[in-house]
Amino acid sequence: MLALRPNCECCDRDLPPDSPAALICSFECTWCRDCAETRLGGICPNCGGELVRRPVRPAAKLAAFPASAERKHRPERCTGVAA
User: Fold this and answer.
1) pTM, entire model
2) Is residue 81 part of a domain?
3) What is the mean pLDDT of residues 58-82?
4) Is 82 a residue whose pLDDT tops 70?
5) % of the chain exceeding 90 in pLDDT
6) What is the CATH number of the domain that holds 44?
7) Total domains in the fold of the chain
């Protein structure tokens, strides 16, 4: 099950579970659309994978399956793609 992390790893912008601006890679690294497009070129700097829109978990399921509260903020990773 996706963790639905609460923020962009680059700029620390809040990304609630229903945000259409959240993008993830296959490892669930989480980025906002702005950082993904302007800083990362659509590629995860942690793994080199493609960034795609994160699915929205239906509100009715959030009570039983809540989004993660763990914030990851690593702005040093926002300068390019991992090798």
Assistant:
1) 0.88
2) no
3) 87
4) no
5) 88
6) 3.30.40
7) 1
